[in-house]
Design a protein that fits this description.
Strand order of the largest sheet of chain A: 1-2
CATH superfamily of the largest domain in chain A: MetI-like
Strand content of chain A: under 5%
Number of strands of chain B: 0
Number of domains of chain A: 2
Distance between the termini of chain A: 29 Å
Structural class of chain A: mainly alpha
CATH superfamily of the largest domain in chain B: MetI-like
Distance between the termini of chain B: 26 Å
Largest sheet of chain B: none
Oligomer: heterodimer
CATH topology of the largest domain in chain A: MetI-like fold
Helix content of chain A: over 70%
Order of helices and strands of chain A: HHEEHHHHHHHHHHHH
Number of helices of chain A: 14
Helix content of chain B: over 70%
CATH class of the largest domain in chain B: Mainly Alpha
Number of domains of chain B: 2
Largest sheet of chain A: 2 strands, antiparallel
Number of helices of chain B: 13
CATH architecture of the largest domain in chain A: Orthogonal Bundle
Strand content of chain B: under 5%
Structural class of chain B: mainly alpha
Shape of chain A: globular
Radius of gyration of chain A: 25 Å
CATH architecture of the largest domain in chain B: Orthogonal Bundle
Order of helices and strands of chain B: HHHHHHHHHHHHH
Shape of chain B: globular
Chain lengths: ~300, ~280
């Protein structure tokens, strides 16, 4: 650093120490809070997963017992399977919806900004408020969803949605896609605007149809965005909580008890801290693994471009 | 795709499609508004009456009488403002340290920050809770402020922006004898207004809408926020959907008012925090 010479001679302190001190004063106010309220609990959570604790009595070291316990627990396995189901469908539908909307809204149209804002709005709306609305809309009798479906289907074929063991998860997935598609649409829109127009011109000259242009230019050019959106959606799906808590609280029965709901129940309902932390560690391993892959691949994209 | 010569039929179809899609997306919000102005007996009638026969504006008054909605609004506003201020200041300070100051261990430290962004809260909410219990901070506003005010996301977002500020500019200021704090206050801070606005808006929306944090931490009614208030309605007056909807509409108003003029900051925030990660 050439600037170090220009700085007034530090009185008694070496330049390095001085720089460190100055840097530290910038970082510390935030770092102390971050260390105490995030980093320490994260480490503590790791330790807890090897302990037996109810929050009041002495902690006991139980090695891998908590992990053995959760893998024997059918509820835990059920929650893993449900989380996977939820993730697969949410990811597929959200990506499809976000990409289609982005392509539609990348046209030069009047009111395009109005359309974009309208579709993005659910993302910023309070989960509690929209949760209440969807709960009402999914009522078996008198709910909007069934009222609309009733036009095409006989009454007997209308599902009970959130109150129905088989339809609760699909209902949650619908709300999730509705709420988050606007966010991913924005990401796709930003990327679409970066695709050079000359590519389409060249394709046009070569007589490529619109569909061919989409398949051969738009879709492959969006690869980094596909990847980013995919990873974000997977991570978000694994940690979904508010939405489920508002819509079903994990029910009916355990029909929508996803992993995060399982951890919540073990923590704040049955006060089994060790088991809850072990389940949290499993969640951590999954999400951490996905994040690592993302870092690796994204680095490759960056090196490549 | 920018179309040059677009067929008018295709164009018309495109508009129809977009209008239908937007209507479907906004349907829940329209239903919310319509239900909030109905009698409770009208909410679930079939066929759906989208426009109530008489507008029952008194629903909005009854919300304030049935639960201490004024207090909840005050709590929500208070927490949102305090947390946003602390967050924006400490994050911009830290982001400056992480981008423009040079010292050993800086990048390792920053890696810790980034790593925790990806860690779901469920993983450490329990140890965090028992720690807060030890500090006596459960069911206090102070405790919740501490939890929310130091989010790593803010540091990350601002750092992305600060990296685009040319170092030469800061060098020039250093040569002129400005201290690091002076550079931060007089050059970087004024330059980063758009990024600070983005962070302000994101923090505001997150805290205002937050449900899980207050739900776990606040037990006494005097501490509760709007989302918990709506949840209370759902528990106590589960049949009065018109009131639940009126409360929901009220809770969306500040977000809507912020959203309409500030959309471009949302878009900017998503684009910077997203793709250049």
């Amino acid at each position: 650093m050439t600037t170090q010479k220009t700085q007034k001679k530090a009185k008694g302190l070496s330049l390095n120490t001085r720089n460190t001190l100055v840097g530290m004063t910038f970082i510390l106010p935030n770092f102390i809070g971050f260390l105490t309220f995030t980093l320490v609990p994260v480490v503590f959570s790791f330790i807890l997963s090897f302990m037996k604790w109810d929050g009041f009595n002495e902690m006991q070291f139980v090695a891998f017992n908590n992990f053995a316990k959760i893998f024997k627990d059918p509820n835990f396995r059920n929650s893993l399977v449900l989380t996977l189901e939820y993730t697969v469908f949410t990811v597929l539908f959200s990506m499809a919806a976000a990409l289609s909307l982005a392509i539609l809204l990348n046209n030069k149209l009047r009111f395009v900004n109005f359309f974009r804002s309208a579709i993005f709005f659910p993302y910023v709306a309070s989960i509690v408020a929209v949760g209440c609305v969807w709960k009402a809309m999914f009522m078996k009798n008198g709910g909007v969803v069934n009222a609309l479906l009733g036009v095409f289907l006989p009454d007997s074929a209308l599902p009970g949605w959130l109150a129905d063991v088989d339809w609760a998860l699909p209902a949650v997935i619908i709300v999730s896609v509705w709420k988050n598609m606007g966010y991913f649409m924005i990401i796709y829109l930003a990327a679409l605007q970066d695709i050079p127009y000359s590519l389409y011109e060249a394709a046009e000259i070569d007589g490529a149809t619109k569909w061919q242009q989409f398949r051969r230019i738009t879709f492959p050019m969006l690869t980094p965005s596909h990847f980013f959106v995919l990873m974000m959606l997977i991570i978000n799906s694994f940690k979904v909580f508010d939405l489920i808590f508002m819509l079903t609280e994990g029910g009916p029965g355990t029909a929508t008890q996803l992993l995060s709901m399982y951890i919540y129940n073990k923590s704040f309902i049955s006060w089994d801290y060790g088991v809850a932390s072990a389940a949290a560690m499993i969640l951590f391993l999954i999400v951490g693994g996905i994040t690592l892959i993302q870092f690796r691949v994204e680095k490759k994209f960056n090196d490549f471009m | 795709m920018i179309e040059k010569k677009q067929n008018p039929v295709v164009r018309a179809l495109l508009y129809v499609l977009l209008i239908v899609l937007t209507m479907i997306t906004l349907l829940p919000l329209v239903w919310m508004l319509s239900a909030s102005l109905k009698l409770d007996s009208e909410v679930f009638t079939i066929p759906i009456k989208w426009i109530p026969e008489t507008f029952h504006w008194d629903n909005y008054l009854r919300v304030w009488q049935k639960i201490p909605f004024g207090l909840f609004t005050f709590n929500s506003a208070k927490l949102t403002v305090i947390i946003t201020i602390i967050q924006v200041f400490t994050c911009s300070f830290a982001a400056y340290g992480f981008t423009k100051c040079h010292f050993r261990g800086r990048d390792t430290l920053f890696l810790c920050y980034v790593a925790t962004i990806a860690i779901p809260w469920q993983i450490y909410m329990l140890p965090q809770y028992s720690m807060m219990q030890k500090f006596g901070l459960v069911d206090t506003h102070l405790g919740y402020i501490m939890l929310q005010a130091f989010a790593a996301f803010g540091v990350f977002l601002l750092r992305q922006f600060y990296q685009s500020i040319p170092n030469e500019l800061l060098e020039a200021a250093r040569i002129d004898g400005l201290s690091e704090y002076g550079i931060y206050g007089r050059i970087v801070l004024p330059l980063s207004k758009p990024a600070l606005t983005t962070l302000t808006i994101f923090t505001f929306v997150t805290v205002w809408n937050d449900f899980m944090g207050p739900m776990i931490y606040f037990n006494s009614e005097s501490n509760k926020t709007i989302p918990l208030g709506i949840r209370m309605f759902l528990g106590q007056y589960s049949t009065s959907y018109e009131l639940i909807m009126a409360a929901s509409v009220l809770s969306l108003i500040p977000i809507f008012l912020l959203y309409v003029p500030c959309q471009r900051f949302f878009v900017q925030g998503i684009a910077t925090s997203g793709l250049k990660g």
